[in-house]
Structures are given as structure tokens and as C-alpha cells.
Amino acid sequence: MYKSVIRPYLFKKDPEQAHYLTFNWLKKVSAIPGVPAMLRAKFLVEDPRLEREVFGIKFKNPVGLAAGLDKDANAFQELSNLGFGFIEIGTITPKPQDGNPKKRLFRLIEDSGIINRMGFNNGGVEAAVKRLQKNKNVLIGGNIGKNKITPNEDAVNDYLICFDALFDVVDYFVVNVSSPNTPNLRALQDKEPLMHLLQTLQNKNFTKAKAKPILLKIAPDLTNEQLLDIIDIVATTKIAGVIATNTTISRDGLISKNQSEIGGLSGKPLTKRATEVIKFLSDNSNKAFPIIGVGGIHSVEDALEKFEAGASLIQLYTGFIYEGPQLIKDINQALLK
């Protein structure tokens, strides 16, 4: 029904309008008594064999929702009914910000991709915390970033504010320094500033009664030398793992007319590169840390390739938009086989 009825309807609308329409519809439908249970019965695959213990957390299944879809923690409860094992919210910044001017979200239908230049649009960390305090047993990752107006030399403070505010309402953290849509943000991926940022967060983490896993989300556009730096940084700071990968600025091999739009590209064009990055990190670190694989997962085969390359868990974003919740169920059922 999704691909034959719902997707054609949504794809006639502006992508950002379609996003909010979908969230409103999902929340209204889920408020009807019995509907959440029906959705879980249709899409959620529950089996002890799907459980994964990764960086000290038990995941009911290894298929999660990537950050960027539920930026403000508005629909994590409803989205969890579609079969996800975990939901990553954000990217959250300390203060609310509007993000970049519209139009800033583009479908590349011929390429099964999306280009976005949203720019960390969100309502700020305090508003997200209030919603997350109402969480009923959804495993949550908190993806954190800096405000656009914060200069890079002060970026650490923004990450610390989000870390402290979200600490009691998320299960793990993701440090996002790899979005191409905040000016100069990717400069924080350089070895020295990144080491400083992650070590500062870890030092803060270890002052807590029980530390929480901190992961780093990296760009697919890093060179092999930079990826070796990432391995070294993970070993030095002892963060919990890496999410590979964020969106790409590459436009290789695209056929869609709007391929020249500025922003980060996600979806099928990213499938191969994301898998390469996962395999490189896994092989060159001798599987020293967990990797969450994300990027161009549009089929069961794409998902299995990510696991075979070395991913412990995977996340969907663009594949979920193009394929619908049946993809989550199909992947989990394939893992059981």
C-alpha cells in the first residue's frame, strides 16, 4: 500500500511539506486506540535472535532510524511502532534555529536519492528534552551539533550544553561534525579539533554516575588517511563507536535534473561508498569498535552488505522514505533466515 498509494501521493507534494504531512498523519492515526498495536503487529518482528548488545546497550533488533527525520523528537514513539529497533533524534542544537532558507529539500527520483541543505533546523535542546521525558520504552540516540552562529572555536560548549541537557533522556549520543549544511562544521573533523571535542565530552561523560556511549558520525567524503585518523581518535578518546556515514557532497553518476542543488546527498548513490567506509574502518581497526552502518540502504541486500562489511547495527533514512516500513520488516526477517 505504501509504494502503490501513499508514496505516489506524497511525492506529488513538496518534499518538506510531505514530511510534515506524514508526521501529522502518523501522530493522528496513532492516537486512535488500537492503531499502534495494529502497526506493531504488521511491521515489528520480535525474536530473541534479532537482539544485539552493542556498546553495552541491548537493541531489540539492529535496524534503526537515522537522525534527520525526527529532528525534534516529535514522533519517536509513533515511528517505533513501524518496526525500528531504535530511533536517533536530532541533530539537536542548544538554541532553536530555523535552518537554511527554503527550498532546501529535493528528491532525486531517477537516482532514488535526496539532497538536503536543511541546516540543523530544530526547536532547541530544551524543547526536545520535554518531549523525550514522555518516552515509553523507545531506545533513543541523541544526535548533537552546534548552532550556526557559534564559531568553531566555541563549538565544544554547544556540544557540552546538549550533552548535559539530554543525558537523562537518551541512551547514547552521536557527535555530528559531518553535516555539509552548517558553514565550516566539517572543519571540526580535522584531527586536532576533533580529538579535543571528543575528549572534552568524554571527560564530562566520566563525571556522571554511569557514562553513556558516545559515537562519532563521519562523512563519506573522508580520504583513507583521514579514516585512519578516525581510528586513532576512537582509540585515544575511547568513544564507543562510529556511525558511517553522513550525506555526501559528491555528485558522481547522477542522472536527475536537480543533481546540482547544494547540500548533502543521501540514498542509493551513497550505497557503495558507505559500505566501503564501513569495511575500511572495520578492517583497519581490526574490528576494535562498533560501527552503525547508514547510507543507501534500499533493500535487504543493501542491509546485508553493510553487516558483512562490519556494521553491528544499521540505520535507514532515504531508503525508508522510498521503500516504506515494509523494508524494516523485510531486513529483520532476512536476518532471521
Automatic annotation (TrEMBL):
It catalyses: (S)-dihydroorotate + a quinone = orotate + a quinol. The keyword Protease does not apply. Its EC number is 1.3.5.2. FMN binds at A67, G68, L69, D70, K71, T91, N143, N176, K217, T245, G267, G296, Y317, T318. InterPro entries: Aldolase_TIM, DHO_dehydrogenase, Dihydroorotate_DH_1_2, Dihydroorotate_DH_2, Dihydroorotate_DH_cat, Dihydroorotate_DH_CS. It is an enzyme of class 1 (oxidoreductase). Pathway: Pyrimidine metabolism; UMP biosynthesis via de novo pathway; orotate from (S)-dihydroorotate (quinone route): step 1/1. Belongs to the dihydroorotate dehydrogenase family. Type 2 subfamily. Monomer. Catalyzes the conversion of dihydroorotate to orotate with quinone as electron acceptor. HAMAP family: DHO_dh_type2. This is Dihydroorotate dehydrogenase (quinone). It comes from Flavobacterium agricola. The lineage of its organism: Bacteria, Pseudomonadati, Bacteroidota, Flavobacteriia, Flavobacteriales.
